[in-house]
Amino acid sequence: MKLSTEQTASVESAILKQVRAHPGISRVALARHLKIAASTVGTYVGRLITEGFLAESEKAVRESGRPPTTLRLNPEGGQFIGVDFEARNLMAMAVDFSDTPLKQTHKSIQRSDSISDIVSKIERAINEVLPDNRGRLLAIGIGAPGLVDPVRGIALQYKYINRWKNVSLTAPLSKRFGVPVYLENTIRSMALAELWFGQGRGVRDWLCIGIRSGIGAGLVAGGQLQRGATHRAGEIGRWRGLPLSIKALELFSNGNGQAPGDLELQDVASVRAILGALERVRQSGSKSLLPSRSEALTFNDVVRAASQRDRLTLEVLEVAGEILGWAVAQLALALNPERVILAGPLTLLGDTLLHPLRKRAEAILQESAGEVPAIVNSAMGEYSGALGAAALAVHEWKPAR
Predict the structure, then answer these.
(1) Does the pLDDT at position 68 exceed 60?
(2) β-bridge partners, 182
(3) Does residue 59 surpass a pLDDT of 80?
């Protein structure tokens, strides 16, 4: 039976995904994985080689007979671009067809930026990492903060960008650059990076907790990223009713009359919340190794002060770490993950944050007879979300037929 154009593209896409997941796979193994005839696989593989998406390699020569050939991705097959952003930062990265990073760029988002300003910055970032031959660009992935509708390509809502509601992203960008554009929540993009390239690779059940201006969780079960019934899974930053100590309320209550029960997890444990707490401490005149009050406080200042064992900085980070530990424990009790991966700028703090977080999570889980997962920092750096968005494009894209 002859396959339709869409079916043919789907089979070829499945072949490429298998080669991507198993570099050096043979045609026979490929046919076994996909449960289709070896002759059929051979036909499709031949076409993908001709079109420059796959290449052949020979295994070591045997004593007799022709050396068997294996398949790998051809780096020259094309390029993909990933864009990841949140309230203050926007990153873009280009990768070749074998997932090797090629170019990257960073842009700042200002509080005064309008929606059109941010969309323009996305376009400029994409332009900066475009291949010299634009015909080699195959697809773009976008990791957007907050709630998203990936099917319609719309960013629905995000608390920390002014008027960020129902922003159409994929349609205008696809028209602008002439390639398919795919949308995902930025924390799930970070989880995709860990799933395909990082500490989630080969692990079936785990969580990625992304901590930046807000907080979210990327949930992986059975080796598959979970999005939820309406693409809202993992919005843990909105959790309320936190078990806040008096010290936590002193540090993270911003003085605007919020009741303790109204504070969300991202109000007491995000990068934004930590900077806010330290700014208030600094403005009070308390002795600290943080820069003078005339300078804007940055997260690099926090990292530097923590490395110098500044008492006030360590106090704020310990309280934030304990609250994150409580959140990790609740997730572990509900989902029983094998591993929890922390992603975002807080990973720069190393064990300074990880130690109180682990200690609190382990205490709660042991008291509740829960299983304690491995809790680790991501090693992928600040461009993990952009790499994940590029990987989203890689895995959603299909050869044109």
Answers:
(1) yes
(2) 141
(3) no
